[in-house]
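pasting for the record
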Amino acid sequence: MQKSKWDVWVGLLVVTGVLAIAFLAMKSANLLQTNWGGTYQITARFENIGGLKPQAAVKSAGVVVGRVQSIRFDMQTYQARVVMNINKEFLFPKDSSLKILTSGLLGEQYVGVQAGYAAKTWQGGEVVTQTQSAVVLESLISQFLFNQTANKADGQK
């Protein structure tokens, strides 16, 4: 069996292609985070996080500014405690608020940052108190149906 120099180059090309496909798959599934500038950590408490998951995006004005690191249940407040890593290049005023939003009608959930106007900015370890919980589609539908049946019952009397 004769080997040529082309065998080595073809092998390297195949390995490079497989690595590129693996990188793209991990990046598109939000399993890979490439941030070389560093992050700072903030914490927020929410009444209801809906379907928010770790590694979900933290966005401001549609731009990804960080990622959700962890989600825990706080036994003292009976709320969800969400820890987020924000890229150091994005400094938000201390009076900024966080809310859980959904991409599209049934898309993935993410944390939205609404920037405030204070002169001081978030620092590492900051606890954000101005939060708005997720809007759960099932709750809205059940409220609508309940109101419809209540209106029909009132109309029959």
